Records
---
Amino acid sequence: MNLELAGKVALVTGGTSGIGLAIAQRLGEEGCVVAICGRDADKLARALAQLRAGSIVAHGFLADVAQPAHMERLAGEVAAAAGGIDIVVSNAGTHVKGTLEQVTTAELEKQLRTKVLGPWELARQVAPLMRQRGGGRFIMIIGQAGKVPGAGIIASAVSNAAQHAFVKSLSDHLGRSNILVNAVCPSRISSPLADRLDLTGEVYLGRSLEQQEARWGAQVPMGRFGVPKDIANAVVFLASARASFICGANIDVDGGYQRSIL
Ligand SMILES: NC(=O)c1ccc[n+]([C@@H]2O[C@H](COP(=O)([O-])OP(=O)(O)OC[C@H]3O[C@@H](n4cnc5c(N)ncnc54)[C@H](OP(=O)(O)O)[C@@H]3O)[C@@H](O)[C@H]2O)c1
């Protein structure tokens, strides 16, 4: 299948690790010029070396998505370095676990800045650049806490539900400019984040990380954790010319774990 991605410019926030790096890799393999960003200079350098070792044309930028000024600067720098922007994958962030008593208001605010305000500002900056090129793609990675809230994941549930509202509203607005906005919703993906966090937040129930991981894998119909490339393949399809009438959708990529029909 020809995805018609060769020569497109794709920015992946949080493209220095895990899911984001796999997305940058797959887009690069399809011929995109990729731009990645993160906060850690060493991680950024390692990711760029990995991409370039595969003959991918890659640009790297230090930027914190929680800071709107960084998003404005990032959009300008990517457009200057690569000649424009066709595709944005809004992926940067982390999972915040804990109950109401455990998550401070400052932690929730940081999560909202990272997951909602940053992508908001980035969309404001890149939409005019995409319009200049006749269209584009804005794809958001949204963890499944946004559809299935819970006591131990309350902060991520709040931020991710807001991301769903953002994607749907933005798709309604930008679809008219041939900028297609969609979401990919991972769960149970092995990555540096999943490896270092008790993602289910069930420690408060007395379950160890090992107990949770064993329980999680068994609960997935496909019987395993996913890998970052599973998410990357879905993103590459949504970014491609083959997804030209998909707008405002959110696609679960989770081995069938999510039983919600919404
Ligand atoms: N793994 C899963 O099962 C899973 C499930 C649901 C949702 N997700 C979501 O998928 C996304 C990627 O997760 P992952 O598993 O690949 O995690 P990861 O390996 O920890 O990668 C996170 C990436 O985001 C960057 N990042 C984090 N905060 C940032 C900020 N404020 N500004 C700029 N960059 C930032 C990190 O780089 P720096 O640290 O250098 O900034 C890194 O490149 C996250 O948003 C996560 O919440 C993951």
---
Amino acid sequence: MNNYIERFSTSERVLHWIVTASFFTLLLSGLGLYSRLFNGYFTFFGGGQNAIMIHKIAGVVFFFSSLYMYFNHKKDISTFDQDDKEWVIKQGGYLARDPSHFNIGKYNPGQKLFALYIAAATAVLGVTGVFIWLPASFPRWLVQVSLLTHGLMFVGSIMFVVVHVYLATIGNPGTIGAMLYGDVKRNWAKKHHPKWYKEASGENR
Ligand code: HEM
């Protein structure tokens, strides 16, 4: 039997990397718009005007690709069952010395929370982004509230993404292969997502 099992299709992986590339482009092009401290980042884009233009283009790409990603895996991230509750009560075993075992499906509750936050942040960042993009077309208070909300949602996103990148790479060895090659080791799947493994493989143990 093949040692690996498919976790993501090619189109799912391409979509995830489009979201990632646009997210980091938004981060680099947006930082200088918030504070003069980060103006140095504008040089990546050939100056402030270019950075603003690239921020808008990356914003449109991120908005549509991230929402598409949400609708694509909505059924896997939007329900929490009894096994998920157990994971939450025991903090996923991350704060215990002994290894813990949970009967987790395709995603654990931490991953679901992350995916739901990113979906909500995408919607809020997109809508507030339009108000900031066309300030003359909207009341001044709305543009100012949007600037504040846009910044706060972004700070939340980057905090979640830092944790996500850590857990998807060095935190849980073997995970990154899922997004690079589309498959994971069967032992990895049995350890981290046993319920999903049983469904995907048809094995009943
Ligand atoms: C270098 C940066 C990144 C790396 C290395 C990375 C890696 C991964 C990996 C390996 C998975 C699959 C996890 C699994 O199979 O259980 C995944 C899933 C996912 N990624 Fe990323 N990712 C990155 C950036 C991002 C960004 C910027 C976003 C969104 C803004 C994002 C959103 C997601 C979502 C929603 C999932 C599915 C739910 C989850 O596994 O948490 N990723 N990522």
---
Amino acid sequence: MADLLDKLHDRLAQAAALDAGVARPLETVFQRMLGPTVAEIDGRRTLVFGSNNYFGLTFHPAVIAAAKEALDRYGSGTTGSRAANGTLTAHRELEEDLARAFGRKHALVFTTGYQANLAMVSGLCGPGDFVLLDNDCHASLYDAARLSGATILGFRHNSADSLRQRLRRLPPDGKNRLAVVEGLYSIQGDLAPLRELVDVCREEGAYLIVDEAHSIGAYGEHGRGCVEAQGVADEVDFVVGTFSKALGGVGGFALSDHDAVQGIPLLARPYVFTASGGAANIAGVRAALHVLMTDRTLAPKLWRAVHRLRDGLSALGYRLGPSVSPIVPVTIGDFALTLRAWRALLATGLYVNLILPPACPPDSCLLRFSCSAAHTDAEVDEALALLGKVGRELGILEKA
Ligand SMILES: Cc1ncc(COP(=O)(O)O)c(C=O)c1O
């Protein structure tokens, strides 16, 4: 008879197979961060190109100072949810600054980006409603839809036509419809066609939520993300995002001009039944937001690193995804070869993200790079030199 623990034993066996050898993809230990782009791993200085630390703000002096000050003022933790233990001024200040920075009426702060998605989708939708997800949506958005109890429908990745067809086939019985997409997709680094998606939602009577986890700061004149860059910010009902990438902290947020969004903290379980973010983290994020929205040199530095890395990878002969974004996916293909390449890179001092099924098709395993404004030209060049060496040694690249 099957046992409750079987699933865990199976998973552990799979992980052990993957982890055999020196470098452990599922358990890489960062002993120390030597800065936003360099870590100590296995006692070795390692370049980090897999962090989502898009602006390198984790070590910004203003961020560190704000976090230290908040630690002294509020202590180490909140020890409960805002519904039960109350809101810190730090949470309030961050919500006010987020609303101002993104030009929105309302901003809500959540404990993680994952919980922001859970809270928003499950707070908005319920049984009988319809949640329409782009097929490539992040796991948190799928989980959010499940938690809502609504009927979940997928539509073809980045296809407004597919969304339209799905919406048209729904029964015209006045049930709510919420379409869910990302601004910049987290694995392939491609952008959503937001103009078309907004138009379809309007025509077919659906609300739209856009997850900008990977796009704030890098896109739009004011760094407000893909909705700003594509000129649809005023037409998107809800934007969600995370503090754990561009803003160098932990937490999530939602933005909206709908006054009703203020009801989410009253009923969404992922808001009510979990502890709120600690003050040091929240104050650090607020400082990071200020830096991101005022330092106009950051985005150009990020794009410089993106172009330098992409150009170098292409020149070496690597297969890159077509979309130019701070996420650079490099397809290696075969599972075993991708794993070997990842291990060899780590062993020579380069950390990137290893993407294996189910996060990609079985024959399209990839190495995912995320660029940072903090990556210097010298660091990009050093990474490329390691990639050239490893790629040739493993036969991924032709030997010169
Ligand atoms: C698109 C997307 N949404 C949401 C999340 C969740 O964010 P967090 O790590 O803050 O929980 C992530 C994190 O990887 C993400 O990539």
---
Amino acid sequence: MTIVYNNYNIKKHSTFKIGGNVKKVAFPETIEELINLLSTEEYDYVLGNCSNILFSSEYIDKSIILTEKLNKYFINGCRINVSCGTKGPIISSECRKRVLSGFEFLIGFPGSFGGMICMNASAHNQSISDSFIRANLYDIKNKKIITLNKEEMNFRYRESVVTNNNYIILNAEFELKKGNEDDINEIMKRNIEFRKTRQPSLTYPNAGSIFKNPANDSAGRLLDLCEMKGEKEGGAMVFDKHANFIINKDNATSTDVLKLMYRMQSKVKEKYTIKLVPEIKYIGNKGTEENKIWETITENIQKIQK
Ligand SMILES: Cc1cc2nc3c(=O)[nH]c(=O)nc-3n(C[C@H](O)[C@H](O)[C@H](O)COP(=O)(O)OP(=O)(O)OC[C@H]3O[C@@H](n4cnc5c(N)ncnc54)[C@H](O)[C@@H]3O)c2cc1C
């Protein structure tokens, strides 16, 4: 049964460990319950593992659905069907057991399938779109379920058809390749090692890459050249091993993160005339001081993404 909380503190659900109380948060337990919520009530956001979100530390006057309980999956040969709330590493481990290749990059990856499909998540030369076959989505505007294939999903760098439409991913089907056990183990080992040495683990709460890579360049490289590593704003700090990550070092607030993002973006703009485009999404109230910083950060962003 769907559990709905009013005035619910969202902090523990965010990988940034930042966030205030939200007006209403619902946790559906089945896809049917999710569809029922979407068709009968108005929700502002449907979120998965909140690993790409900066929630405001202040009260958030919004209604949110969290899909974390929608974690069913079926595997039949090379075909995998996953519900939107299923987490990447669970499926990655299942694939390893069955010697299926294509999801090695999801080992140690914090996203849910809904979020990863929406963002076309990728790492280590693999992306969610590579093995994608089709998804069932709820079309909020027309109040109906639709099925979209890979072409119709219009996957791009950190975007898909879901990004700008009122579509909610319910479940999706993928087809992986029969692989080689040693190769899969080796790739996963390398991926875990890479994350351990170059990115913050979640013991330093963070939300992944702060900015998207501009065309033919890397946001981390530009920020590093601007000497942003280790820079602080309140409890937020630019990670000292990768300049495109902000970690919540000491009870950071959303305002700390936004101010630091603004400084990071301004430095790169000043030095390289490139306005970095945020990869993370901010959820807060319109008209507040931090909403104004967010609007400055996101205004006139160049469409020069990879
Ligand atoms: C330590 C760390 C490392 C990371 N490394 C990478 C990386 O290597 N590559 C990469 O691509 N990303 C990376 N990320 C970012 C993040 O994990 C991905 O963007 C991921 O795809 C987000 O999934 P999520 O479930 O957390 O989505 P959320 O953060 O909950 O939501 C992200 C977006 O997806 C939408 N969404 C979520 N569920 C649904 C649904 N069912 N239907 C429609 N829309 C939905 C939300 O509305 C929102 O717009 C990293 C994050 C962290 C914290």
